[in-house]
Amino acid sequence: MAQIARHLSDEYDERSSRDGDGVKEVKHTLLDLCMTSMLFRTVAQPALHSYFKRTSDDSNPYDGSDLLPATNDCEFRRCTRTESFIKTLIHRPDLAASVKSMKLDAFQDNDQTYSLNTTHLPLDPMTTDLLVESTHRIPPPPPELVRQWASRDDDLDRIEVWQDYWREGLRLGFANAEIALLFTLVPNLMRLELSSSDADFGIIVHDLCEQMLGPRSSKTIVYRHLDLEVDTGFRSQSPTTPLSIFSNLRDLVLKTNPSKDLRFEGIGRLLSVSTLRSLQCEHVNGQDSVVEWVELPLSHLERLELQECPFDMLSLGALISSSRGLKHLEITLTDTYPDEDFWTALKERATTLETLQLHMDFGEAVWDETQICDLSAFEKLRSMEIFQVMLSPALEDSLPTSLEVLTISRCDESFPAQIGQLLHSIKAGRLPELKELNIVMDHGNVEFSAHSDEKLLGLQSCFSEAGVRFQYGACVDYACATSD
């Protein structure tokens, strides 16, 4: 734009004596336009780089038609979107600092990336050198005294060799190596969403997290009559050494699908980041992971959402026990339901929990009626969504006085009578803060007869008189319709 302004300035010089005011006006307008354009770019670029998304179709096809425009030959391939984004962040640290959120998919499939060195074209040497040199901004942490005896070739000690493997992966175009580099370039990242097609996020990302966030020591503890060796003293919890990665991470989302086997062991180091406040997991396997959670430092975690994550109750209880500052808990379980281990761990959060949602699909299994959820001691609980079978038949005995919003799902034909008892308790001042009550009938087991509908409709007006908004409806597989 500035070049256009200069060009027009020269073109109009010979006419300036005849139309001097017009030339000045054109030059002034174009310069204003240039300044506006530069200002817009200055403002827009950080916003455009604040979010980055990598999907499974991120990579360009690695075939003979994938040519560098500058050379027009088959020697090198073009950069993928991820590689171009990384190059921009390397050259523009100011834009790297503006990255706040990333969603990353399909970067840990090593079966695909290992074939790059034989069947696919490499990147041009300048780009490769740029990526490799950028890894030197992350110095390897010094080895712990207890580990200094380990030899360089010891497979159990990767402290001195993991970066060499990382750089070799960058030279070969491994997506896992590139994502590890990306993690080191975004100091202000606040939200990270990852998906995996494997048991973890790849060896190079694993090594980066292990070295930058992992434990500095371990100790033996006794947990439920078991002697367990657990990690302690995580680098990410150090008050004196600033983190080189994820120093501002607050929200972590981890997703896979039921056919994969992403395990909690593969993400444990990410959870130790002291700034992390929210963890959302979908189809992440938590079976037999108790050792990972017994003393993992998770007191900073405030929100935990587990959607259809396979868990044994001992491991799930240990995870909740470790999350000592937990305020919001949402769990959807499949093929299992809470037992004494779960309820015991949940009661440990009675002084912190503010919202609670418990959903489960236990198929044909018969609910154990001894597993009653007594939440009366949860002094800060404001909102709760829970199944009828988890509560005592005398609802008011299971509920805390702090409750403001209550949703009870999968209700059977006996439930309207229990709701009537609850109404009497509300009128007597037993639940002084309650403002909203939602009842979701189990449509698979209950027919909405005219009598039931009439009774619920009558309760609706009674609750309204008591100052409580009452809604009811039917539910099939969590797809619910309510009546105002």
Summarize the structure.
With 484 residues, the chain is α/β, with parallel strands linked by helices.
What would you say this structure looks like, in words?
By secondary structure, this protein is α/β, with parallel strands linked by helices. It has a domain at 2-44. The protein is globular. Mean pLDDT is 77; it is low at 60-65, 111-119, 145-157 and 476-483. α16 links the parallel β13 (436-442) and β14. It has a 13-stranded mixed β-sheet, covered by helices on one side. α3 (81-91) packs parallel to α9 (175-185), α7 (125-134) runs antiparallel to α8 and α13 (313-322) packs parallel to α14 (340-347). It has 16 helices and 15 strands.
Write the layout of secondary structure elements.
Elements: H1 2-11, H2 20-48, E1 51-54, H3 81-91, H4 93-96, E2 101-104, H5 110-113, H6 116-119, H7 125-134, H8 162-172, H9 175-185, E3 191-195, H10 203-213, E4 215-223, E5 226-234, E6 251-255, H11 268-271, E7 278-282, H12 290-293, E8 303-307, H13 313-322, E9 328-334, H14 340-347, E10 355-361, E11 383-387, E12 405-411, H15 415-427, E13 436-442, H16 450-465, E14 469-476, E15 479-483
Helix pairs in contact: 1-2, 3-9, 7-8, 8-9, 9-10, 13-14, 15-16
In the sheet with the most strands, the strands line up as 1-2-3-6-7-8-9-10-11-12-13-14-15
Category from helices, strands and their pairing: alpha/beta
Total beta strand runs: 15
Mean pLDDT: 77
Task: Detail the poorly predicted runs.
Answer: 60-65, 111-119, 145-157, 476-483
Helix content: 25-40%
Distance between the termini: 59 Å
The profile of the biggest β sheet is: 13 strands, mixed
Question: Helical region count?
Answer: 16
Indicate the proportion of strand residues.
Answer: 15-25%
* Radius of gyration of CA atoms, rounded to a whole number: 30 Å
How does the overall form come out from the CA principal axes? globular
What kind of oligomer do you see? single chain
Biased composition (Basic and acidic residues): 7-21
Region (Disordered): 1-21
GO molecular function, one term: hydrolase activity
Organism: Aureobasidium pullulans (Black yeast)
